[in-house]
Amino acid sequence: MLFLTENDVKRVLEGGNAARESVEVIEQVLKQQSEGSTFHLKRYTMTHPQHPGHLWHNIRVLPGMVPELGAAAVRVYSGYRGTNRSEVICLFDWKDMGMVAIISDYHLHAIRTAAPYGVAAKHLARADASTLGIIGTGRYARGMASAVCAVRPIRKIKVYSRDPNNVRKFVEMMQPALGVEVTPAASGREAVRNTDVMITATSGNVIVFEGSWLEPGALYMSLAPGECDEETVLRSRVFLSGSEQVLGDDPPRKPFNTLLASGKFKPSDVVAEFCDVVSGKKVGRRGADDIVFYESPGMGILDAGIGHWVYHRALQKGLGTELPFGEEQQ
Question: CA-to-CA distance for 283 and 248, rounded, in angstroms?
Fold first, then answer.
C-alpha cells in the first residue's frame, strides 16, 4: 500500500497543468454520475460528545465509488483545531476493493474542492466570461480561481478579504501563477461588481454576498454554507451537485434550510443535478442574461476520482512510501 504525505502530493502535482487536469477528471466523474454508474452516500458526521454541533470537534466520513474509473474511496477527516489538517483519502482498487493508497488530503482537498467549480464555469458561465470576482483568499479561493481560469478566458480577477494582508498575498501569488491581472477590491460588493463569474470562498455561516448584487448573465458559485442570503437563491436558476447533501446536510446548510422551512424554496426548484448538465441530458444556461447559482457540497465520488488521479501520477513519478499492510502473520 502506498502512503502519500503532503510533500509527496505537492511533488506529484508539479509539472503540467494540475488545475486543468483535475477539472477534466471531475468532469468525467460527473458524466459517469449522470449515467448512474457511480455510488455515494451523504457525508456522515459524528459529533464530539463534549462539543455537540461544533465543527472543530468531530469525525466526518465521505464514501464514494466510481467503477468505470476503477476506484473507490473514503475520505475521513476531523475538524482538528478548526483547520481540517487531520484528513486522508483511503483509496481502493475497484477490482478487489483492496486498499492501494492512503493520501494526505490537506493540499489536495483544495484542488478536489475547486475542480467541480471549474466544471461549472465551463458549462454554466457565459462562453465569453472574462472577469472573475472572489470574496475570500484562502486555499479554496486560490484553487477555485485556478480552476475557473483553466476553462474560461479570464483576463481580470478582483479579490476581497477582511484582512488586507491576505489580499496582498493572494495578488502576489495568483497573478504570476495565472498570468492574468489580479487586483484588490475595497469591499465584497466591489469585488463582484461588473464581473461575469462571482465566487464566495470563505469559512462560511456569515453572509458575505447579497442577492441584490446579482447582475444579468452572472454565474454565482458558493463554496461554504451561509455565505449568501435567501434572495441570492431566489433570484437564480439553481444547479447543485448532490442536491440531497445540500438540502439535507448535517449540520443544515444555510440559506437552503430556512428557505425549505418557510416554503419559499422546494427541492423541485432545483433546475437540475449539475451532472445531468455536464452529460447533456439537461439544459444549463438558456441565454446570456440568465442568473445562475451553483454549489457543490462535496461527494465521495469526487475524492475517488481525484485520489485515483493523484495515485497514478505518484506511481509514474515513483513517489510515496510503500507500507506493509494486511500481511498474514507467519
Answer: 25
pLDDT of residue 251: 75
Given a cut of 70, the residues of the chain with pLDDT beneath it are 53-55, 80-85, 327-330
CA-to-CA distance for 109 and 6, rounded, in angstroms? 11
pLDDT of residue 51: 77
Cα–Cα distance between 54 and 235 in angstroms, integer? 31
Residues in Cβ contact with 134 at an 8 Å cutoff, skipping those fewer than 6 apart: 141, 144, 145, 157, 158, 159, 160, 191, 199, 200, 201
- In this prediction the pTM is 0.94
Q: Domain limits of the chain?
A: 2-109+300-322, 114-295
- Among 78, 98, 100, 80, residue whose Cα is nearest residue 88: 78
Q: How far is residue 270's CA from residue 268's CA, in Å, rounded to a whole number? A: 5
User: CA-CA distance, 307 to 109, in Å (whole number)?
Assistant: 10
DSSP state of 53: T
Which stretch of DSSP H or E encloses residue 270? strand 270-273
Q: Residue 329 corresponds to which amino acid? A: Q
> In sequence order, what are the residues at sequence separation of 6 or more whose Cβ sits closer than 8 angstroms to the Cβ of residue 287?
none
Homologous superfamily in CATH for domain 114-295: NAD(P)-binding Rossmann-like Domain (3.40.50.720)
H/E element holding 91? strand 87-93
User: Cβ(227)–Cβ(202) under 8 Å?
Assistant: yes
Homologous superfamily of the 2-109+300-322 domain (CATH): ornithine cyclodeaminase, domain 1 (3.30.1780.10)
Q: 3: left (phi > 0), else alpha (psi -120 to 50), else beta?
A: beta
How far apart CA 80 and CA 59 sit, in angstroms, is: 9
Is residue 305 a contact partner of residue 66, using CB atoms and an 8 Å limit?
yes
pLDDT digits (tens, 9 = 90+) for 274-293: 999 999 999 999 999 999 99
For residue 64 the three cell numbers come to 464514494
pLDDT at 80: 62
